[in-house]
Specification:
The chain is of the alpha+beta class and 335 residues long. The protein is built from 13 helices and twelve strands. Helix content is 29%, strand content 21%. The longest helix has 21 residues. The chain binds flavin-adenine dinucleotide.
């Protein structure tokens, strides 16, 4: 049996101090961390409980942004009045994640920091470059269907980033606020998660001694409609095979501005900036244009033995998401 130390922090300075000096992990909802400790994949010497920190508020910022505390539960965020009104894509993404019990427990920062669901990473014994750098990637020639990527992979790791919430945040645009021993800093959401490259063990831009305190969502796009389409093996309690967050604003019957991000197919929450730029000016019912944008978004995708089906599946999710978001934009206040 492995022993670990438990500390409950009541303010961020105390949390940082308790975390320093040994192999520590912040404990939020515990829905990733406790699993991985039980599996012996994560072996913290100390868990620093952050649930009592004053980081559970969702507050409007004067410039139109929305600041979400690190310990806001996924359920609270999904049903927040402002999120439901201005960030429907985020509400929908959250409500399609995990199960009701898990969403009641899981936090915003924990979701951002959740680890991959690759079975070779989680079994604790197979070669896995993320768990044990240099040991190899068992997934590349192994069973690589559900939670394996076709975008952003490397010869060292092909695990998908599993979050739904983060896909919506990638489309909306956000800033991760962190606090460390030397003060606060902000990290653009798009720079937060790292592709595996040669260092799959480095998953994000957070330093070991830093704590996430907030995620601040960009101001909502004016007059936009948005949606999150998630395609999976069963309709609940299942990770995405392919998903798409779409935000679309119209000028008459043409698209004025658009944002697209993908889940289930990328090694990080996958924003499609080049593809979304090609939507601008398209007519709201131009399915051929939507299909061309979907093809563009999946350009450069590299399939593995069991997940090639994800490429056409993701294209379908993209087309449907653009269509639904545009329809909502067209309905004005109902979007
Ligand atoms: C059966 C099951 C099904 C699931 N299905 C889905 C799904 O469909 N879609 C989806 O998106 N997710 C899914 N999840 C994942 C779930 O969303 C995450 O486990 C959850 O969001 C993690 O949040 P948490 O608060 O429980 O984090 P914890 O488990 O407490 O922590 C996770 C990680 O974040 C770190 N951490 C926590 N707070 C901070 C902080 N403030 N600063 C720095 N680091 C911090 C921890 O140290 C740890 O490394 C599923 C999980 C399970 C168990």
């Amino acid at each position: 049996m492995r022993q670990f130390d438990y500390k409950r922090a009541t303010d961020t300075d105390a949390a940082l101090a308790a975390h320093a000096g040994q192999r520590s992990a912040y404990l939020a909802g515990g829905t990733t961390l406790i699993d991985l400790v039980k599996l012996d994949v994560m072996q913290p010497e100390r868990m620093v409980d952050v649930n009592r920190l004053a980081l559970s508020d969702i507050e409007p910022v004067d410039d139109g942004r929305l600041r979400v505390g690190a310990t806001v539960r996924n359920t609270a965020l999904a049903y927040n009045e402002r999120v439901v009104r201005d960030y429907k894509v985020l509400s929908e993404a959250l409500l399609q994640g995990a199960s009701r019990q898990l969403r009641n427990r899981a936090t915003t920062a924990g979701n951002v920091m959740q680890r991959v669901r690759c079975s070779y990473f989680r079994d604790g014994i197979s070669p896995c470059n993320k768990r044990e750098p240099g040991s190899g990637c068992s997934a590349i020639d192994g069973h690589n269907r559900e939670v394996f990527a076709v975008l952003g992979t490397s010869e060292h790791c092909i695990a998908v980033h599993p979050s739904d919430m983060c896909v919506a945040m990638a489309a909306i645009g956000a800033t991760v606020e962190v606090q460390g021993p030397n003060g606060r800093r902000e990290i653009a959401f798009g720079d937060f998660h790292k592709m595996p490259g040669d260092t799959p063990q480095i998953e994000h831009a957070l330093e070991d001694d830093e704590l996430i305190t907030h995620v601040t969502l960009d101001a909502p796009m004016r007059d936009a409609g948005s949606t999150y389409i998630k395609l999976r093996d069963r309709s609940s309690y299942q990770f995405a095979l392919a998903s798409c967050a779409a935000i679309v604003a119209l000028d008459g019957d043409r698209i004025r501005e658009a944002r697209l991000a993908l889940g289930g197919v990328g090694t990080k929450p996958w924003r499609c900036q080049e593809a979304e730029a090609e939507l601008i000016g398209a007519a709201v019912d131009d399915m051929a244009a939507f299909e061309a944008v979907a093809r563009r978004a999946m350009e450069g995708a590299t399939p593995f033995k069991h997940n090639a089906f994800k490429i056409p599946l993701a294209r379908k999710a993209i087309v449907q998401a653009i269509k639904d978001a545009a329809a909502r934009a067209g309905q004005g206040a109902l979007a």
